[in-house]
Task: inverse folding
């Protein structure tokens, strides 16, 4: 009917449901399968078709050391220096015009014609020639100590051999790329980056190659 008030229009509100967060359930680590005593499979055994090259920390790799160096140095030095200086008597204070009768010693007269002269000469000549050739061939086992993010391996090895109270020690360390390791799990020392190879000895032979302590002291203190 006319004049009747219009009924208000209600809008339906969307249904919303408050969701409570789910409780955190820690993951359960699966139990490792334990092989029976009669099983042919072992977790510590390598894969049948797996590469035998060193790839993990603690793996052993064989380093073939084949190094040779040849150094030669020559030096020839020669210096010659000569100096001369002359002082005349009148130019020295206390003689000549300053003192009418200069004397020296016990009343002796000083001859003004005399002059004081100094002459110096210095010569030095030295010739040095050094030539040295070193060769080192050895095979040593090394362990993988660290693996870099790019896959390169840092290896380090040491071998000590003692015979007849003579000790020889060979140490090697460096960075090797996996592609430089051959199928026999060996790597050449020339392929090592930042390689450090040390060959030392201790014993009678090593001591015989050094001069005595008195000779070393004389060489240090001798000024000529």
Result:
């Amino acid at each position: 009917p006319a004049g009747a008030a219009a009924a208000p229009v209600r809008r339906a509100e969307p249904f919303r449901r408050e969701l409570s967060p789910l409780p955190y359930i820690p993951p359960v680590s699966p139990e490792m399968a334990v092989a029976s005593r009669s099983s042919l499979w072992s977790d510590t055994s390598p894969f049948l078709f797996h590469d035998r090259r060193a790839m993990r920390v603690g793996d052993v790799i064989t380093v073939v050391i084949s190094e040779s160096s040849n150094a030669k140095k020559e030096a020839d030095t020669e210096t010659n220096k000569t100096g001369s200086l002359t002082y005349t008597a009148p130019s020295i204070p206390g003689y000549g015009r300053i003192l009418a009768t200069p004397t020296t010693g016990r009343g002796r007269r000083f001859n003004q014609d005399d002059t004081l002269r100094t002459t110096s000469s210095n010569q030095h000549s030295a010739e040095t020639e050094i030539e040295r050739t070193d060769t080192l061939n050895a095979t040593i086992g090394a362990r993988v100590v660290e693996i870099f993010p790019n896959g390169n391996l840092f290896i380090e090895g040491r071998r000590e051999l003692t015979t007849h109270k003579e000790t020889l020690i060979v140490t090697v360390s460096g960075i090797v790329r996996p592609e430089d390791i051959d199928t026999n799990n060996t790597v050449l020392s020339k392929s090592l980056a930042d390689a450090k190879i040390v060959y030392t000895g201790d014993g009678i032979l090593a001591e015989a190659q050094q001069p005595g302590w008195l000779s070393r002291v004389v060489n240090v203190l001798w000024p000529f």
Summary: The helical segments are 204-208, 213-221. Residues 83-131 form one domain. The longest strand covers residues 115-147.
